[in-house]
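Hi D.,

Good news: the full-assembly prediction came through. Inputs first.
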Amino acid sequence: MAPLLELDQVWAGYGPMEVLRGVSLHVAQGEIVALIGANGAGKTTTLNVISNVVPVRRGAVRWEGAPSSGGSIVETVRRGIIHVPEGRRLFADMTIDENLEMGAFLREDPAGVRDDRERMFALFPRLKERREQRAGSLSGGEQQMLAIARGLMARPRLLLLDEPSLGLAPIVSQQIFRTVRALNAEQGVTVLIVEQNAHAALELAQRAYVLETGCVCMSGVSKDLRDDPRVRAAYLGE
Amino acid sequence: MPLELAEASLLLTFFNALTEGSTYALIAVGYTMVYGIVKLINFAHGEVYMVGAVTAWWLFVTPQVPLLAALLLAMAVCAALGLALDRVAYRPLRRSTRLAALITAIGMSLVLQTTVQLTFGAKFEAFPETTRARVLVDGCPARERPDPAARAVVTLGLGSQPPVAQPAGPTPDGWVPVAWTVDARTSEPGGPTPGGPPGEGAADAPTSAVLWVEAAHVRRLQGTPPALNADVLAGAGGERLKLPLKDVLIWVAAAGMMLGLHLLVQRTKVGRAMRACALDQTTAALMGVSVDRVIAYTFMIGSAMAAVAGVLYSLKVGGNISFRMGYYPGVIAFAAAVLGGIGNLKGALLGGMLLGFTKAFCATYLSSDYDFAACFSVMIGVIIFRPYGLLGRPGATRA
Ligand SMILES: Nc1ncnc2c1ncn2[C@@H]1O[C@H](COP(=O)(O)OP(=O)(O)OP(=O)(O)O)[C@@H](O)[C@H]1O
Ligand SMILES: [Mg+2]
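Then the structure:
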């Protein structure tokens, strides 16, 4: 059976610059997969290619075996690919409630949306207390919670998380990782996560890809990568 | 109780200011909404206002569509025009430089003007009803008389070049003299003394003048005023000032549409999508918002509102409908949008009102030669001290 998502020799870039040079990876239904790599390696670009924010120049992105690149961003959202972008990108002038509503933009079941919102508030009680507040007035950690909650409101089949722990206190990022794990275990949400913190990423994910200047240089089961001397030296600081 | 001329003039100026302000606000909304989302000044927007007025006028005069239907059809035509402008002129350039889109906007503006000129000619037209109550003061076109009485008439918006008639009984083309007494206290000290009309002693009456009115409308000035032309009666015939209904129509339409738009933007899903696109288009798309469709809605809504402004304002002033009529209102409304804080709906309302008041009061109390200059002075003054406009914030245009 075809994997949920597959990148096959994908090239992409900006203007004259080639950022991805033949990236291949796949994510199967129900997995948590991590993407790690140095700054500028092309991790964000990889996620952008998956959600059609950046066009593919060569190669193919396949969703359940069918080509999915070349269309609009909204088409990927319809398929259930939900991208929680780097730097949160909340609608700062909207309230928390409104941001959550935006996350559920394409859904037609108001009752389900309402239930899901309560579920988000149960998951992130801090958001509930502030639901009428502007998203821009939240703390960094609260904003990250809201960004994830907003993504979950769409009932994703594949959740793309770009550095969800960026700038967060260790306690808060641990909470976010726990939440991701719970979502995966309890609701079967498939996750592709980009993480600066390789330790945490390899702990969370079952498999991982290591990206280096636009190429996948290593991949495998997290446990093996954790034990790999090159990964230990380059990404785990040992 | 008769109103004194000074009071009547102040009130009428206030009414005019509200009317001009409402008109500018209705147009400015279109500039500001489009800018808020696309970051583009749609310089063809003044032409949309013009097309709205011309369409309703043509429908009203030629196939004699009822006025309300003509207004609604003009709104629909303009909405379609806004949609077409976006599709044809702006969407293909969305990823190119802003300068390209700007030049295209100016080009579209010329295309629309020329098309209307070729189709309807270059004459100034008016909705029939509004041209009838033309008034002369002492047989002179009201605009040329330098005294307060004439100025009051000009303030009334009745200065549109009437035929010169002899001040003796009804003329063959149906003009009738109507005596009009003006309280002397309203004359400016040292100002020019208006000459009394022939056959009336200028000594006993403080100031008097003769209004020439088309025969069919004499009754309107003498006794029971029909509501639509009640503004003529301010200061004339000792009547109490009535609310000028055509102005009220514009105020109500503007207030209603602004409120409706506010509710749409703040309370509905489409409105939320609009705000999301204004804040961050890529992220809005990542939520599933079809950005191009939201932009199309924005053009349609703004254009329909400009149509309302064009129709109702033309209905009021009369004799202004031509292919050129969009230029000044377009430019002033743009200034209003900028000075209110471009991208901000309340700013468009505030800016429109501020410039409407500036223009009307300048026209009455300084000179109508400088009214546009006054508007731009106000805009420049505001922008110097608040570069992002009255309600604008530096972050408001950030992606
Ligand atoms: N919009 C853009 N326009 C031009 N160049 C870009 C753009 N976005 C990213 N780049 C370039 O592409 C390269 C890869 O960027 P990318 O954001 O994918 O890296 P990353 O792996 O996510 O890095 P980080 O860990 O810092 O987030 C960088 O050299 C960056 O300068
Ligand atoms: Mg990145």
